[in-house]
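pinned: reference chain
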Amino acid sequence: MERIKIYFLVFWFPFILSETIVLDGNLDESAWIDSFIIEEYYEVVPYTLKSAKVKTTAKIFSNEDGIYVGFINYQENSSMLSNKSLRDQWSANAEQNGVAIDFDNDGSKAYMFIITLANVQRDGIRPLGSFPEFDWDGDWEAITKKHNGFWVSEFFIPWNVVLMKPESNNKRKINITTYRYLAKEKVWLNDTKTSGFRTNFLSNLRTIEVDSFSKRKLNFFPFVSKTYNSVSSFNENKLGAEVFLNTGNGKQINLTINPDFGQAESDEVIVNFSAQETFYSEKRAFFNENQSLFDLNHYDRYRIINTRRIGSKSSYFCSLVANEEDCIDSRKNYTDIDYALRYTQKNNNLDFGIFIAKESNEKYSKGKDFYAIRSKNKIDNRTIGYFLTHVEDNFLNQEATVNVIDFANVKSNNLTIYNDLISSKKDNKNGFGFRSQFNYKPTPLTSRSGSILYFDDDLNLNDFGYLKKNDWFHLGIGSNLTLIDFKKLKEIRELEVGIDFNYDADTSGNSNPITIGQENEFTFFNSSKFQFSWDLKTSGKDTTITRKNVDFPYVKNMGSLSFNIDYESPSYGIWEYDWRIGYEDAEKYKSFNSDGYRRRYAKVGGSFYPTDNYRIGFTARIRSEKEWLNWIENNDLAVYDLSQKIISINMNWYRGTKHEIRLKSQFVALQAKNPRSLIVNESGYLTESFKDVDPFSEGITSFQIRYKYEIVPLSYIYLVYTKGGSIFENNIMRETSEIFKDPWNNPDNEIFSIKFRLKY
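pinned: its structure tokens
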């Protein structure tokens, strides 16, 4: 009852039209005097819910332009940390203020706006049933300023920063919460006893009523770019544009013509010998803007739309053309895009969207056409949606269609249920799958979750979406408990204990190993963290390693036990470090002369930031495996002694708020030694084979240095240098240093690019 009273209190948001608000970090305009004030904050990360030990005051008001939020953060100046970072990059060493707003008051998603004391913006979306995603960049403003004994942040969030449903009257209910991050203690404070990492975050926001305004917004972003690849002599000049239109009455259009994504951040290097495709997140700004309606996924298992498919490498049949050599030289690892269009609208309880993208035709290939239609209808606490995707491959003369009906039911603030029904059609094959999941929080310190997934053998999402694995049945149950009251171990601030049970099989009933895992994470008062986890796997059948061979559908695996230990140090002024060790042992294979599987893993990393404007990070990883099992072809396999070394070096440098230089590099060296040839029979048993298998090595290099100059907000100049490649050598064993060097000395690509983008 008390909460209901709070929700429906009259909160005053004065509309001060006579005085312009200047974002200067002072909060001295008269408009702030009568604003709605929040002064009660609670410790939510770690989740102690204790009253904050430091004072924070937040002031909120709105006018016809948007919502203004001002924070006064009381703190000794000597403890204020303000290390710079890239936009949207998490920085543990900078004080922060944040605001989360559910503009439609429907509990489906909240937009998160964060500013650090270094004046670095972070913005993202927290959808129902998922974690915060910080790929979205909105057109909003914020500034911070240090004072004696406190620092101030000022936010201006325009009404047209996001697409909102239109209101028939002059009032709008929004859900809102404010929060603060204390960098030295690594503690989050919140005014509504929740955080973006809690499953019931959206149900715990504060509901307020404000006057409703509609604002039309039209932005035009022309750009020009030049790209040159010194390895292939590829030279390209591009002229294109992006158009953004928010009508102010619930409709929005995003259009890009002849786009160039040469400044996009390089991907993490992942060596993958499995049958399952590696998923890479989207880093191109256009495909992240206003994309939340089209985001339907279940963790890393599937996504109905994976925009990385658009502009990916084209198909080529160079051996069938007259000028085979010219065709080979013309191949690129990407496809140009003619245009991409996204239209979305909100009508009361209905969200509707259309997405279209068309790739360019090339000299020896043809581009694909992508189409998607999405609708979500909200009825009380339930949401039912429909999703249609369609891809036309003009080169292979193939079509692929996916239909989805999704249903979400928020039964209470503590229980939410999700269901997806999925069908696909390609090459006259019809596939089917479904997902059923629940998240339940019986108390603030406990949670339960469970899911059932079924994907038949013909389900295909990978023309436009992402499906980690078809021909799959999954049952998972998890439980989590948070402990915060330690009478004897007073140095521990919080302990999170989680346990998971997972059963997997193919649709024919061949059971994979059953997994039981347990995780313990300790958070200490000095802000360090220690995590210990273990996994127990039973014996079972690996149904993917033989690539679904009809005659040899699986390999019988032995049971195993693994554990991992992680540690994150506190901050030592200008540096910090972390490390991880992992260990796994499996039983011996009884069908051949086996010594048993062994895995060892070690990682050490650190960050050094001598000034607020400079940071360098280093990570080294070592992995070794005995009897690493690798598929060759058909039912031929081999075991190797595998070793892998990865070195990553990153550097960020900033000058003021305009200049930014980022270096990102990764070097991988992999060696597979002492091979033994094996063959698997129809019963899944491995036996010795007399076929020859060779040892091999692989080296991969990924290097990028990027300079960005911000002319004005959302207007940039990019200078980018990218170099990378891979070298695979069969039956040649080389020193690790040589494997690191080879891809650098003989790169696949060495690209220079420049891009100028201007906002009108």
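why pinned: The longest strand covers residues 659-680. The longest helix spans residues 736-745.
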